[in-house]
């Protein structure tokens, strides 16, 4: 099924995303691969949802958008939790970590997530980032890439205030950049389009404030783990998509992640052997996932192409088994 952005290519002005080379041709150029574990971080309107649809299709993984999951939960106006969630979202704040984490935990076990997952808008705080590490460690999974969609605040107002959504499918349009074929109607079903209740100037300002205060510290958190890259999200949809794929592929080629022990001051104590019983570890220590670059200290630029292929394959298997 082609997405709305692909379906109207070639007919729009210079700002319009549909003037892009086809997304299919980008997929063809970069080849297809299955499975990845990805986090998308970015302010409201930076394009997380737009890119999620394409990336999850490419990697055949599930999309877990905490915004969408919370909107579903808020729908139940009869429960006090539903009402609380709705209030927080309309005020542009962050919903309680416990609620968000339990939604993630539940949804991660779904069969659609067996090849991997893409978190759209999660984690949003250092605490959520730490809790996610614990959760993934308990499931013996790890993140491949954290992509930040960077864009100045003043460009976001136009994107957010012009957004139209088809609620049942999650398809997103834009009055100016990606208009539906027929005004306020979904291209595929003809059903009415809506605006999100938090897409107002007032709530957008609050959402941006929350993003800068609570979410941007996460960028440094993931930079330290060497799995973060920033992408210029002012670019056209297809350019952002292409860059996202290239960065994810680069990360997947490099074994950069391994479990280690760190103390309260974030100092590395020692590497955990796979046989260590976590219950025996001293209480003052916590287990975290930290980057370790080029763990065999090999200058890969001097290796032949064939040897490099074997080297990458072997280190990848060793890494997956927690041996390096
Ligand atoms: P959420 O639904 O995640 O909202 P958000 O982070 O504010 O992001 P948006 O969905 O508004 O933007 P987007 O980046 O997905 O942009 P899109 O692709 O749609 O969260 C909502 C609320 O839920 C939060 O405020 C919070 O209260 C709560 N919440 C969520 N997660 C939480 C968590 N982990 N913890 C606690 N609370 C949480 O694009 C926007 C528009 O721009 C579209 O119209 C699109 O067509 C257009 N567009 C996209 N890309 C481009 C481009 N490159 N060029 C031109 N136009 C573009
Ligand atoms: Mg979104």
From TrEMBL:
Bias (Basic and acidic residues) ranges: 172-195
Polar residues bias: start-end ranges: 21-30
Region (Disordered): 1-30, 171-195
Domain Adenylate kinase active site lid: 163-198
NAD found in the keyword field: no
Record's keyword terms, sorted: Kinase, Nucleotide-binding, Transferase
Protein family: Belongs to the adenylate kinase family.
Protein name: Adenylate kinase active site lid domain-containing protein
């Amino acid at each position: 099924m082609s997405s709305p952005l692909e379906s109207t290519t070639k007919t729009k002005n210079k700002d319009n995303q549909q003037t892009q080379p086809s997304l299919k041709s980008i997929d063809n150029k970069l080849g297809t691969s299955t499975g990845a574990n990805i986090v998308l971080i970015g302010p409201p309107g930076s394009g997380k949802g737009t890119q999620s649809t394409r990336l999850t299709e490419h990697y055949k993984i599930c999309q877990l958008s905490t915004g969408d999951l919370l909107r579903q939960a808020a729908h139940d106006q009869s429960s006090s939790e539903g009402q609380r969630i709705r209030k927080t979202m309309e005020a542009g704040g962050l919903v309680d970590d416990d609620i968000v984490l339990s939604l993630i935990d539940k949804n991660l076990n779904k069969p659609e997530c067996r090849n991997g997952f893409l978190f759209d808008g999660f984690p949003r705080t250092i605490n959520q980032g730490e809790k996610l590490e614990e959760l993934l460690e308990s499931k013996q999974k790890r993140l491949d890439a954290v992509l930040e969609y960077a864009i100045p605040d003043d460009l976001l107002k136009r994107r957010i205030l012009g957004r139209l959504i088809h609620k049942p499918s999650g398809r997103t349009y834009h009055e100016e950049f990606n208009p539906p074929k027929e005004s306020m109607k979904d291209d595929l079903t003809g059903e009415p389009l809506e605006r999100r209740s938090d897409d107002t100037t007032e709530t957008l300002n609050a959402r941006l404030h929350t993003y800068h205060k609570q979410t941007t510290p996460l960028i440094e958190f993931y930079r330290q783990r060497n799995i973060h890259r920033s992408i210029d999200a002012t670019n056209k949809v297809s350019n952002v998509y292409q860059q996202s794929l290239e960065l994810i592929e680069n990360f997947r080629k490099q074994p950069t992640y391994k479990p280690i022990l760190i103390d309260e001051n974030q100092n590395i104590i020692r590497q955990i052997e796979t046989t260590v019983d976590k219950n025996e570890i001293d209480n003052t220590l916590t287990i975290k996932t930290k980057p370790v670059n080029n763990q065999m200290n090999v200058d890969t630029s001097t290796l032949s192409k064939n040897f490099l292929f074997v080297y990458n394959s072997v280190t990848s298997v060793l890494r997956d088994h927690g041996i390096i």
